[in-house]
Each structure stands twice: as structure tokens, then as C-alpha cells.
Fold these 2 entries.
Entry 1:
Amino acid sequence: MIQDEEVDLLVNDLFELYGYDFTGYSKASLKRRFNRIYILDNFPSFAEFRYKLKSDPAYLKRLVEEITVNVTEMFRDPLFYRTLMKEVIPSLGTKPFIRIWHAGCSTGEEVFSMAILLHEANLLHKSLIYATDINPNVLEKARKGIFPLSQMKQYSGNYIASGGKQDFSSYYTANYDRVKFLESFTTRMIFSTHNLVCDSSFNEFDLILCRNVLIYFDVPLQNRVFELFDSSLNRLSYLALGSKETIRFSDLNSNYKQIGKEKIWRKMA
Amino acid sequence: MAENGMRTPSELIVIGGSSGSLDVVLRIVSNIKKEIGFTIVIVFHRKTAADSTLLELLTARSVLPVREIEDKDIVLSGVVYLAPPDYHLLFEKKHIFALDDSEKVNYSRPSIDVTFESAAEAYTSSVVAILLSGANADGTDGLKAIHRQEGITVVQRPDTASFPFMPRQAILHAQVDHVMSVEEMIEFINGR
Ligand SMILES: C[S@@+](CC[C@H](N)C(=O)[O-])C[C@H]1O[C@@H](n2cnc3c(N)ncnc32)[C@H](O)[C@@H]1O
């Protein structure tokens, strides 16, 4: 088992050697992730683990991938998407051009779900979806728009529960055990690496989604990220978080109005 | 939010349940006395995020405030907390909850092992872990971790459990301090 002090050593190494700053990450979760990869990769001792990290940049890639959690799905939390469709998308529709940012998009399932919503609201042609993540590997997958066929049953169930009325399978073509989503979706997407810890605002958006990313951060880092989002949102734009995340602990809270019970806030001032 | 009257809990009672433990959890919660100086956390295997029934059932039966945990909530005493579906529940050292949506453990998220292990780390010997009915082996490793930190481990008496597999696994493989019927558990909790 890796101990607390050892977690601190690794976090330090990652920063000093490679510039990855995990100091503001939730310690409880980070420690679990380090321990997980330590066991998976069968290290005989902490010293060996640390040596590997320090001496093998290729291993760094694996480590960063494993300590960041990439779990995601299409139309995750159907009620959230329902609210998005009913309350948020219509107001975006009044704009001449729509800019959306998925921060921490992982392998892109959320981004393609958004493209479907925009397509069905007849807004995709005037939308641009920016999708970013710290991990270049997941972005590589997202960019392709290819997902396992075996997941489609669950995703189309989520889609229907979200209020979707079209034939979900019309949005992709299946090939053996995989499906590829429509080219017309991917042309409206821009994928790029962006680290929420250290990179700055790069545009103004009408909607920012950052779901299930902030749970991995401690409260001070969350607050810094909220500042970043705030400076990237126009007035009356929206911020959407994961189903158990909140801006309640942030100073910005008073400038935002929550939309119903869902984790969607509108910037009022 | 009760952040005003905030006290750090002296002790944490973590209850893990799976198949067949809904009734047990409800019975326990409805029989807990009003003034408790500790925190109760319930980790229950359940299906969907849309399922808010459990929270409602617990709220209706308890004299204590019942809350479903959100990320970075402060752990308060005198409150019954429910782990949200689809996240693992962890504890930060400074009495703060943390959520994590990483891979399932024992086919479960939340996993009882994950929460027990994290509670053992953050609260060391001031944890009581209680494992109830269930059909999988979740909880056993967690009880071992609690025991290593000198916390107290309690398991439901298998012959009183609708699904005795989970408690039985724990009794076989972990160091269990008390094996109790539901009535005994209620008395035990109220006596702390
Ligand atoms: C659990 S996934 C969430 C995916 C999706 N938003 C969802 O809710 O289904 C978390 C993602 O956050 C990314 N992430 C972690 N730290 C980050 C950082 N500092 N900057 C940007 N992305 C980060 C991870 O690489 C991972 O892909």
C-alpha cells in the first residue's frame, strides 16, 4: 500500500519532472488511483514504482491515464439531458451562433450526445462544440466518433429516457462490433488538450459542461476552475456540472441561478 | 445547511448493505434515538440514479436528518447520510466526503469495500462498520481494513439475513468483532 507521504512524493515528481500538477486533486481519490496502478503493474516496492516513473517517460503516459478516471457514457443521467433539451437548448437557439465547451470530455460520449440534441433542435449547423481533456489519448478516441456496438443498447435506452424520439440507430453506422457516428456531427466539433489546473480561458461560451471532473479536485482547486469558467461565460450563459457536483461552495454562487433541481446554473451577473 | 451548528463527529458508523438489506436499513434507521453524537453513513447497492425512493423512505422513518451525499459535503454528526448511486464514496482526512466515479469494484458502485477502506484510513479506530445482507462478496476486504485500524466490525447474523452470502463471507474471511441480529444492532448503535 502506498502511504500518504508517498502520494505527496509522487505528486511532486509528476510536477517537477513533467509539469503535471496534481496537488489540488482530492487526496482520497488520488491515493486510491496510485494504489490501483501500483498493484496492477505488480511493483515489488514503492521505490521501484517511483524509479519507473522518474526514469521512463513512456510510463508517465500510462500513469496519468490511469490516475485520471475516464468513465463516461452517452446520455448519462437522462433527467439532466431532459432539462437541457427543455430549458437550455431553446434559449441557445435564439443566438446567431452557439459555442459550447465540454471540459473534461473523456472519450466523447457526452459530446456526441450534445450533437444529437443540437441536431434534433435544428441548431447543429450554427453550433461549434469545443471538447477538451487533459488526456490526449481519450481525445484521440473521441475525435473518431467510434464506440463499441455493445454499448448502444444502453445508450439508446438512456436516449429514450432523456426524451429522445428519433431512431437512435439512425445516428451511426455499425461495422462489426463498432459503430461510427455521423460525419455531420464530428465536423461541428473541435478537440484539443486543455488542463483545467493551469491552462487559461480560450473563448467565450454560451454553455459549459464540466461533469464528473470536479469531484476529483479539492475545494480550492474547484474554486479556481469556477473562476476560469466564469471568465469564459457570457452573461445569461449556462454552466452544467455532474449530478453530485455543486457551485454552492464557491464565491460565485450568488451570481448564478440554478435551473430547477438539475445541476445547471445560469450566469445572471 | 446545518453548517452553523457544525461539530466534527467523534465517531462514524458505516453501514453496508446489498440484496435483502433494504428492510434492515429501514428498521435500523427508524429506531435510532434522536441525540446521537456520531455520524451514520449508509452505502447501499442500488440500481439507477433516478431512484430517489430510498432517500424518501429513510427520511420518512428517521427522527434524524437524512441526506444524500454530494461532492465535498462536510461530515456532520447527528446526520444519516446516504451514498449516492453510481459513485464510490470516500472520506478526505478532514471530515469531508469525496465522490469518485471510477471502475466498479465487486460489480458495484458504490462499493462497500471502497467506503469501508477509506473510512478506516480517515477515521482509524473511531469507525464502526456494519455489514448486512447481500449476495456478493463486497464488504469483506473493507472489514479487514477497519480491523487493521482497530475500528469495530459488526456483521448481521447470517440466519437473520435474506441473503446470507455477504455476511457469511465476512465471518469466514475477516476479523469480525460482533455478529448480531437486527435488534441487537439497534441496541448497539443506540448505546454508543
Ligand atoms: C469521469 S470523466 C468525465 C467524462 C464526462 N464529462 C462525463 O461526465 O461522463 C473525467 C475526465 O476529466 C479529465 N480530467 C481530469 N483532470 C483534468 C484536468 N486537470 N483538466 C482537464 N481534464 C481533466 C479526465 O482525463 C477524464 O477524461
Note: Chain A has two domains: 4-68, 78-267.
Entry 2:
Amino acid sequence: MPEPTGRPGETIELTDVTKRYPGQAEPAVEAVSMVIPAGEVVVLVGPSGCGKTTTMKMINRLIEPTSGTITIGGTDVLTLDPDQHRRDIGYVIQQIGLFPHKRIEDNIGLMPKVLGWSRSRIRARVAELLELVGLPADYARRYPRELSGGQQQRVGVARALAADPSVMLMDEPFGATDPITRDHLQNEFLRLQREVRKTIVFVTHDFDEALKMGDRIAVLRPRSVIAQYDTPEAILAAPADDYVASFIGAGGQLKKLALLRLRDVELAPAPRAEGLPRIAVEATARDALDLMLGEGSDVVLVTDDFGDDATVIGSLDLRMVMGAAAGEAGNP
Amino acid sequence: MTAPIQARRPARAARGTGRPRWAGLLVRPALIVAGLLVLWLWTRGQRLDSIEARNVNGEVIGSQVLEHVELTLICTALTIAIAVPLGVAVSLSRSRVGRVVVLGLGNLGQAIPSVGLIVLLALVISIGVGTAVIALVAYAVLPVLRNTMVGIEGVDPVLTEAARGMGLSRLAVLFTVELPLAVPVILAGVRTALVLTVASAPLAALIDGGGLGEGLFTGLSLNRPVISVTFGVLVAALALFADWLGLLAEMFLRPKGM
Ligand SMILES: Nc1ncnc2c1ncn2[C@@H]1O[C@H](COP(=O)(O)OP(=O)(O)OP(=O)(O)O)[C@@H](O)[C@H]1O
Ligand SMILES: [Mg+2]
């Protein structure tokens, strides 16, 4: 993974923000207030047409709110020059929107070029970002139509990161990728985010993606009315109402386990027994449960790393997993 | 008569790598050469009287072709210089009124029969090349204007939004995204205008503007078919050639990656 160039995120605050499109009876977004803390990933989930994209575009002023205020780092965005303001915000649009007449390198390097970076610096940045999103370096010379939908989407993410913005707005950035690629991109993204700590607003339809990506999740009703805004763990533990519960769907307990990394669980000492199944500490409690069920063993050994020569650092049994689900080993 | 020219669709020749396309590119020059060859053989076979001989000879033809080409180039350059910025401005203003007014004027220039326009302007202004240029430009502005507007408005709004969203200024979006993507459509309009100009430029001779029209009208007024046929075929060949050049331009100037 390339070294992140770090501009840390800033807090975004929406106060009573309303957007009424001309000629429509109902506002698309009504009186939304929320604080998106600096350096966190906040995921907006909600049904199609509930105003997620509209809310996002008001933050970078592609859409001007009808009323209410939005501040970033304490500054009212309406007082800023819109172009300068947007340069500080990476925007991954829902429809990808790569420029078809520009090569991938020129798509990604466009803003750095506008900002006057040297050519060698742009080239290095493009290479770094392609590697980050898992595309071969020689794709730089291709045109967008020579890439698959999922590959284009990754270029879209790279392009948004190019000028090292402090805030990222990501509108269903991994929507067009298969589950395996999506999982890989999510993991890479989370790993990068742990280092760069940007403030990220992330839109998705997929509640499981929300659970995985979000430090906080805002479950939205139509008109972007917030049904619940909390950490994934808290939402799973106590959905505010039936609407939120319907988003969680079936298997809420399992989803809770999926949020819990073994490194955050207090492990029991490793027993001497031979031949027990092994699992890495990076895995989740859900993975551990899956392994127990699959191997027919109610104890698994936890190792410090993947692979056969990893060191055993403790063990986990079924009762501890159940305790974790009940929240005892809960939030670190 | 109002016969608004349809926004001409850009040539697709560059798309796909079919060899037939390239072969097709050679058909037109071959036709032109063949036509001119036939013309040459035919005039050689005629017994020319003194008036005919004075008009149908290399020197006269050469100078008139040159004048004609000059006139066409000047007119087309002016047409582009007027129509493209105007079309861009109207598209960007998103003003309905502006659109209607500008297209209306363009339609008017096109709708008045070109002979009428050229004679009318000669009466109002004066005879001469300048007046001919004004009339020809007025006549050819519409296709470029319309195609510029159609081209810019046809750019996927998702792309302009992406560009705006990254923080490009309105002008930067125009030059990095909208104009390059509109180039094929604009060029198709230019090609139409070019052919229109070549084909109408003979009218310039009516008001002393020079060009191949001189020979054409001499032949007609003196009832010498050899002369009018010769110059008529030359105009047609030149128009075909202009169209072919336009096609080449469309193929080579279209943005890559499309
Ligand atoms: N430019 C516009 N003019 C008028 N109405 C609009 C406009 N853009 C969006 N809307 C309306 O506002 C509402 C919210 O749209 P928005 O695009 O924000 O939804 P979304 O939550 O992003 O949906 P999706 O998940 O399908 O992308 C919708 O009812 C939509 O029809
Ligand atoms: Mg949307």
C-alpha cells in the first residue's frame, strides 16, 4: 500500500437543512441536522429516492440548500467560493462519470494538473492511486470504455482521492462491483482510512456494507428524515423502531458478531489439546462461529496471523461467542 | 420556404476498425478524378469557338478555382468564428429566449433563397466580394450554430456534474469536457456549411464577387453549353472534394477514446 499523504478530515455539521426542488410539493430533504465528526466514516442508508444524493450534493454545493446551514471545520460553506470549496472535497458520483475522451491517467490527474502539480508528481500520484484501488499500472494509458464497470468505479474513487481532499463524498462507490471485488475494495478502503482519517460521507443501499464501513450509520426515511443515527453496534443492539429493524433484516445477531474482531475479544488461555481448528485474530467472531459449526468443535485456537506457522495467542469457545453476541465483550 | 437543415450526425467512420471504411474514403477522390478526366476528354473533343476558348482554358479555370477556394475558405472561417462562440454562449446561458432568437435568425438566413439574399444585400450595401462574403456566411451559419448547440447540450450531464464536483470552473468545464465531446457534432455542422458554401459561392459572380460562377454565368448568358458544363462540373467536383475533406476532419479530429 502506498504511503498516504495525510490531510486529516474536518467536522461537517448540517443544521436544519432543507431542499425543495422547484415545482415539487414535498421537499426532497427536510430539516436534516447531523454532525459528521472529523475523521469518521458516516454511512447514509435509506430507500431509493429518499434524498441521500441530494443531501450529499448540498455538502459540496452542487445543490444549494433551500434553507439551513452546512459548516465544514466550523466554516459556513455558503461563504466559500464554490470551486475552491469543491477542490477540497473528493466526490465519487453514483454514475461514475469518467471523462470518455481522457485516458485513465488524465482522468485521475485532472485536478492535480489544474492545481499546478509537476508532471512527475502527477505521474507518481496516478501510479500510487491505481495501485491503491488494485488496478494494473498499465491501465493508466487506457480509455474509460476499455475498462469494465467495476474497474471504472475504482478509477472514480482514485480520481476523487487525487488531490488529497480532507472530505470525501462517496455515492455508492462500490455499487457496480462483484461481491469479492467489493469486499477487497472495502477492506483496502478501511485500511487506508485508518491511516488518513478523512471525513467520509458514504451512501449505500446495502445495510451490510453500511455496518462494515461506517463508524456511524444514519438510517434515513423519505425526505432524508433521520430514523436513527448511531454506531453500527448500537443500531444492531437497539434499533430505534420497526423501520430501522426492517433495514437490519434477518440475522441481526450474526451481523453483530460480524462487527466484532477477535482482537477486541478477551481470549481464554490456549489449551494444550492438539488438532483444534485455528483462526487468525484479524477474523471476526462470526468467522469463529462459522468455523466452530463447520468443524464441529466448540473451541477454536486464535493465532496472531494468517497461515500455518502463526503463533497461537489464545482460544475461544462457544460460550464466549454467545457472551460477545449479548454485548459483554462489546465495544472496545 | 423554410427548410431547416437537420442537425447532421457526425460521421461514424472512425469507430470500429473496418478496412471497408478506409477503402470507402478513397471512393470520392476516385469519382472526382474520373469526372474531371471525362470533362477534360470531352472538352478536348469539342471544336471551341473563340469565346469558348477564351473561357475554357487552364489559366482562366485556374484563377477562378483559386478565387472560389479563397472565397469559400474566408466564408467558412468567418462562419465558424461567428457560429461556434454564439452557439456556445446560447447553450451555456440556457436561455430559452436566446435560443429561439438565435436559431430564428439562423433559419432566416437559410430560408431566404440564396440568390435573393445575395442580390438583396448587393442592393442594400454594394456589389463586390465583401457583400458576397456576408451573404454566404449568413447562409451557412445555421448548420454550425445548430450543431454547436446540439453538441454542447448533448454532453452527458453526469460528466459536467463530475467536472463541476471536482472544482473545475464553469469555463474549465467548457474547455476540458463540453467542447471536446461536442467536437464530432460541431465538425459535422462545419462540413455541411463548407459544402453549402462551395455550392453557393458561384452566386458571388452575380455581384462581381469572382469565383467559378463567372464562367458558369458566362456560359449560360452567351448560350455556350461547353463553358457552363465545364464550370458546373468544376463546382460539383469542388463541393465533393470539400465534403471529403470535412469527412477526413471528422475522422481525425474526433476525440480519441470515444
Ligand atoms: N434535480 C432534481 N429536480 C427535481 N427533483 C429531484 C432532482 N433530483 C432529485 N429529485 C427528487 O428528490 C428526491 C431525492 O432524490 P435523491 O437523488 O437525493 O435520492 P437518493 O436517495 O439518492 O436515491 P437513490 O438511492 O435512488 O440514488 C427524489 O424523489 C427525486 O425524484
Ligand atoms: Mg442517489
Note: The interface with chain A takes residues 156, 158-159, 161-169, 172, 176-177, 180-181, 255-258 of chain B (CB under 8 Å).
